């Protein structure tokens, strides 16, 4: 069958239309997985998960005066233990992926002299980490040479009542284990003592930590 020049033009136009339709169809198919992934990401957010701004609002709702340094909120928290009131320097910050909340109580700075850091004191803190439970553990922040007592909590179902309970629990552990983390007690334990003299730790409130910065929580898996 002989096809005229006009016929070839019609066939060419028809093929061009089919090509355009194929490209558009491919584009629609390519967009569908992206929309699906967006839905999955939204569904993975924990129930009751709070944002960085909501964390600050939650602390304010508890009557705490906060100071924000980058992404971390610093504040003073009063803990009552054995009829004594302790004013603790604490901080709260979200992890990088927002799925965890780091809460910490700032303790004493690392002594300048290595002689004032007995090996038994470090081993005792490691042993305390195993005893405390509830995700609490002693750590050392090298950027400002301070010890901290930390707790990592899943960022879900957060309320002022729940967060106050978390801070109170952390504060109780700070007071309970004061004889172990107090660097003044370390110095007394290494100093010569008169024979027959019992060593008694002096309970005192923790001082307001200064320069407690540069803490950046890692992403939790």
**Which whole number gives the mean pLDDT?**
75
Enter the CATH topology name of the domain at 52-190: Yope Regulator, Chain: A
Q: Radius of gyration, rounded?
A: 30 Å
Structural class: alpha+beta
Q: Give the number of helices.
A: 6
Q: Specify the helix fraction band.
A: 40-55%
* Largest sheet data: 6 strands, antiparallel
Strand order of the largest sheet: 1-2-3-4-6-5
- State the order of secondary-structure elements, H for helix, E for strand: HHEEEEHEEHHH
CATH domain class name of the domain at 52-190: Alpha Beta
The N- to C-terminal Cα distance equals 69 Å
| Stretches with pLDDT under 50, minimum 5 residues | 16-43, 191-216
Q: How many beta-strand runs?
A: 6
Per the principal axes of the C-alpha atoms, what is the gross shape? globular
The fraction of residues in strands falls at: 15-25%
- Please give the CATH architecture of the domain at 52-190: 2-Layer Sandwich
What does this structure look like?
The protein has 221 residues and is α+β, with helices and mostly antiparallel strands. It has a domain at 52-190: Yope Regulator, Chain: A. It is built from six helices and six strands, in the order H-H-E-E-E-E-H-E-E-H-H-H. It has a six-stranded antiparallel β-sheet with strand order 1-2-3-4-6-5. The longest helix is centred in the first third of the chain and has 39 residues, at 5-43. Residues 16-43 and 191-216 have low confidence and may be disordered.
């Amino acid at each position: 069958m002989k096809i005229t020049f006009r016929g070839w033009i019609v066939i060419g136009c028809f093929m061009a239309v089919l090509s355009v339709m194929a490209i558009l169809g491919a584009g629609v198919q390519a967009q569908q997985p992206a929309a699906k992934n967006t839905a999955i990401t939204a569904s993975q957010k924990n129930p009751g998960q709070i944002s960085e701004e909501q964390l600050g609002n939650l602390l304010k709702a508890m009557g705490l005066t906060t100071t924000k340094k980058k992404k971390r909120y610093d504040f003073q928290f009063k803990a009552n233990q054995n009829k004594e009131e302790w004013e603790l320097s604490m901080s709260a910050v979200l992890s990088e992926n927002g799925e965890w909340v780091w809460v910490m109580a700032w303790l004493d700075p690392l002594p300048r002299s290595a002689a004032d850091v007995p090996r038994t004191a470090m081993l005792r803190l490691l042993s305390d980490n195993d005893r405390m439970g509830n995700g609490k553990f002693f750590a050392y922040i090298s950027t400002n040479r301070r010890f901290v007592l930390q707790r990592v909590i899943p960022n879900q179902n957060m309320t002022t009542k729940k967060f106050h309970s978390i801070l109170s629990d952390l504060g109780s552990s700070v007071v309970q284990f004061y004889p172990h983390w107090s660097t003044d007690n370390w110095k007394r334990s290494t100093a010569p003592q008169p024979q027959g003299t019992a060593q008694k730790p002096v309970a005192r409130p923790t001082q307001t930590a200064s320069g407690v910065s540069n803490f950046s929580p890692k992403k939790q898996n």
